[in-house]
Design goal:
339 residues, alpha/beta, Rossmann fold, 2 domains, six-stranded parallel beta sheet, 14 helices, 12 strands, 16% strand
Amino acid sequence: MQFNFLIIRQDRIGDVVLSLPIAITLRKAFPGCRITVLLRDYARAIYQNSRFVDEIMSYKDFDLDYRGIFSLAYQLRKRKFTHSVMPLPDSKLNLTTFLAGIRVRISNGHKLFHLLTNTKSTYRRKYIQFRHESDYCLDSLRKTGLEIHHPEAEITISETERMENRKMKDRLCPNLEKLIAINTSSGNSAPNLTRAAYLELTKLLVSDPLIKVLITDKDPLPEFESIPGVHFLEDKNDLREMINYLSISDVVVSSSTGPMHIAGALNVPTVSVFCPLPACSPVLWGPIGNKPTYVLPSETYCGNICSGNPKTCSFEGEGGISPGTVYEKILGVLNSQRR
């Protein structure tokens, strides 16, 4: 019997990147299997050209109305999947896989819709501080009896893209400057520096004639445009373009957000600001696939200066994270590359 797997990951870009180990693990465990991923439309670029998946399916949120569920279920049923894996529970998609006739359906949590559709469940009754999020995702495969020890992630750049990317790097850095990509926003999903701090960091970096800066945000501050040596994405809504730009960067700087995870899967060094609280720590949310560098506030910062709310923390104040500290970490990574 040939296994035919459907992986469903319907949330943020960083979470989609952390689903890559599921496809890689399945491909290595069952070389002859077929693997399809179902994603929100905007995340397709993460799996584009992947040697680990056979098909990418996608949908927009408004597609999953009453008729949309039956339409998608029909499309899935035609593909005759033997297994579906859904790390993030979703009632509409759970119903869709049930209607599609997929016999082995694995999801996370213990919801009523899981019971009604006889879906196998994994559990997260509490976070274990020293487990990575991608390892939690792999629990869905452990449910099938697979032994998994180390999550792997890889975003594939095609040979055609590599050739174009080399030209792009030559254009941005004609004198062999180092290219530092900075993503200043986090979508309010993680503690982060203020944009003013990122502006100061950018000025520190471009003061070195051997460094160029690339801002990867969709809506960068206008002040960045007046700084010589700063570049921007040509199409800020094109995720694949961002992936290609990140692939030619020498260091990617950000908080715990999608571009950091993309850089990890591209094996590009990262310098990332993180909160040490267990639910936000790099042990749980750090990138996989690269050599990361983490910048954390002092041990006394959380609870004394910071409110402890990761959505409002900006690492300001005594014991926090300054632009100068991040700058020194970046220089440390660049110096290690020159050795």
